[in-house]
Amino acid sequence: MTGAILSMDAVSLSFKDKRVLDNLTFSIPRGQTFGFLGPSGAGKTTTIKLLTRQLAKDAGRISLLGRPIERASAADYERIGILSDTSALYDRMSIADNLRFYARLRGVSHGRVPYLLERMGLTDSAKTLIKNCSKGMRQRAALAASLVHQPELLFLDEPTSGLDPAARAEVHKMLGELRDRGTTVFLTTHDMAEAEAVCDRVAILNDGAIVACDDPEELKLRYARNRVVIRTRTRGTFEVAKDAAGADLIDDLMRAGELVSIHSDEPNLEEVFLEVTGREF
Ligand SMILES: Nc1ncnc2c1ncn2[C@@H]1O[C@H](COP(=O)(O)OP(=O)(O)OP(=O)(O)O)[C@@H](O)[C@H]1O
Asked: Residue whose CA is closest, atom 4 of ligand 1?
């Protein structure tokens, strides 16, 4: 099946008189890993709450699994997985028992539990009670719990927050495998390097509005700096615009034997973010 699995059209939401989401429009084709990026307070979690019906929009249209969200059935929600800071794991149960519990809750067999434990690097801690787990272990266990029923669409709210680099890399690898299997992922993060590593497309949210939405590579090209850095033998290091005058200057420097190096920085997504929002993380 192709087409959008999830879309928002001119969606807005206010808390009292404060507009938190402003005219959001985007659509996510089946199988895509879509990054929803923005600094703290931009509205990422609120958007996930709208998409998972923990909140209701004030205006606009949301389509989920091909139908208006208001008409989504319980069976539709069985096709969805959610990882958020409100994902509940039972403190007095072990990691493995939690996963088996979630499998029962979702009406699927326990068969995938050992695989998920292994993929999340939790096999050796399978019998550890959640209350004795580190934050990183809990986060990996919660991610495994969101996957027991092999959802078609997965909402991940800051999935690597609080993880050490090894656990973060494990989650990224898992996201790659989910993409290979055709799972659609809606991922919020304020980590631009993470978005570059795992997302097919990203939307950048600032103060509740989408200020850019595209393939990360396209965004980087669009916001590429229009300058190169020149190092010379006797005239120091300076920036030159990528235009005809700059080309003439570089030509002169080369002929004079002055040019040592030309360096052109590819912007990363963090620079794109700063450019489109004027903010810092
Ligand atoms: N229940 C609520 N009542 C009033 N304001 C709220 C409520 N929930 C969130 N907000 C406000 O809405 C805005 C967006 O919050 P949200 O939690 O969606 O941001 P976020 O991008 O997920 O931030 P973070 O990265 O810190 O999780 C913030 O200004 C927040 O204070």
From this structure: 15
